[in-house]
Amino acid sequence: MLTLNWKKFGIVTGLSLSLFAAGCSQNDTEDTTNGSESGSSDGEAAETTNVGEAVDYAITGIEPGAGITEKTDLALEEYENLSGWEQETSSTAAMLTALGDAIENEEPIVVTGWSPHFMFAQYDLKYLEDPKGVYGETEYIGTIARQGLEEDMPEAYTILDNFHWDPADMEKVMLDAQESDLETAAQDWVDNNGDVVSEWTDGVDSVDGDSIELVLTPWDTERASANVAKVVLEQQGYDVTLTPVDPSVMFEAIATGDGDASLAPWLPVTHSSFYEKYEGQFVDLGENLSGAKIGLVVPTYMDVDSIEDLEAAE
Prior knowledge:
The chain is of the alpha+beta class and 314 residues long. It has 13 helices and ten strands. Helix content is 37%, strand content 18%. Strand 6 (211-216), helix 11 (220-235) and strand 7 (239-244) form a beta-alpha-beta unit. It is globular.
């Protein structure tokens, strides 16, 4: 299990992130959603002749340690028109609050966003085009394990290796959690998707209380997948601990064997620097969800479509 030092310096404030009321859609990875009552798609109010000035040349970000935060810092360097802009980091919850407040008042805002995420169903949003490819194309979420896990816990290794679901599945858990909590939503999903779960556990024998630790980032997406995996592993007899930490700590924990596995890496772009730093020190089990995406996001009522459309600070 991760030591106190890991938990003291690695666990981020995102542990207490709250879910916001929203629906979820399979089309999160598209530039726009299928519509909602929040905001306005006709461009009546919140259009501006100078987006940069209107948002004080600031991008509303999330936690400092997140991969998307690093990519946004890189975007500020790569795009000449972002000269003078800053990324304001805080927490995912704070970003979502700022986004909701801006849309309620039909004001402009630029945020760091990712999908799957329920905010794309809650609001009419779009990704800004990224001509320089800083944020990469569509990504996948992968699974990594410490070296030796297959030999030590072959049953758990098999389940984690087989674990794969769709964005709609993840969004369903996130949506249901708004009415209860992630643990309950994960249990309900497992109970209602026995055919999928049976594919993960096919041929796997039960164990008697073996302990396993899954390390994750504090994003709601990763909390959803970790909690579903926890339910399935516990049904096979494992004693499961979930430890949310900063992404850099997550990779280091698996590489050093302080954690057993993680379903949280976003690849090949978002967590690429951490992956490359520890490559060869962990086992890559491949993707567990495809169709993920990150980038700069704005409400659809804003008259801007590309990062290059944002004006430099005067």
